[in-house]
Amino acid sequence: MLKVGDKLPAGALQEFIEVEGNGCSIGPNSFDVAKETAGKTVAIFALPGAYTPTCSAKHVPGYVAKADELKAAGVDEIWCVSVNDAFVMGAWGRDQKTAGKVRMMADGSADFAKATGLTLDLTARGMGLRSNRYSMLVKDGVVKTLNVEAPGKFEVSDADTMLAQAKSA
């Protein structure tokens, strides 16, 4: 399992882009995790699924609300990672009003979740292999803080915890 001090695993995440620009076409685009985190401080939070109750009511809205404060504390980007396809993450981002605040990164085949060792098996609930709920502060591709939730909990991966960690980093 990924731990503080580790480099993020190699791989790619997908993001649905609303407007063409910066070499990105409209629609799903693939981004190399190492390249996207190089030289940056990134607050990453992961969750079991788009449109699920806790994720939609608390997790994403918290990071959207705290985006300016996180950026003032030195965070360059905020990523939401979920085992969903880029189309779903794009639609969910529109619903959650994340534009310019939180990048909605798709881990469609759970490759990133598997590589981190932070998976959650929800097969019995009809959702298959998902990402555990967690947050981490990443500097230049290296994990500086990692907050992994206990099953069914939402206590340590919230935006307030991340903001306190970013301010003290």
| CATH class category | Alpha Beta
CATH architecture descriptor:
3-Layer(aba) Sandwich
Q: For the CA atoms, what is the radius of gyration?
A: 14 Å
Helices and strands, in order, run as EEHEHHEHEHEEEEH
Low-confidence stretches: none
Per the CATH scheme, the topology name is Glutaredoxin
List keywords for this structure.
seven-stranded mixed sheet, Glutaredoxin, 169 residues, 30% helix, globular, alpha+beta
List the helices and strands and how they pair.
Layout: E1 12-17, E2 27-32, H1 33-37, E3 41-47, H2 53-65, H3 67-72, E4 77-82, H4 86-96, E5 103-106, H5 111-116, E6 119-122, E7 128-131, E8 134-139, E9 142-148, H6 159-168
Parallel strand pairs: 3-4, 4-5
Antiparallel strand pairs: 1-2, 1-5, 3-8, 6-7, 8-9
Can you put this structure into words, describing what you see?
The protein is built from 6 helices and 9 strands; from the N terminus they run E-E-H-E-H-H-E-H-E-H-E-E-E-E-H. With 169 residues, it is α+β, with helices and mostly antiparallel strands. It has a single domain (12-168), classed as Glutaredoxin. A 7-stranded mixed sheet has the order 2-1-5-4-3-8-9. A two-stranded antiparallel sheet has the order 6-7. A hairpin with a 2-residue loop joins strand 8 (134-139) and strand 9 (142-148). The longest helix is centred in the middle third of the chain and has 13 residues, at 53-65. The radius of gyration is 14 Å and the shape is globular.
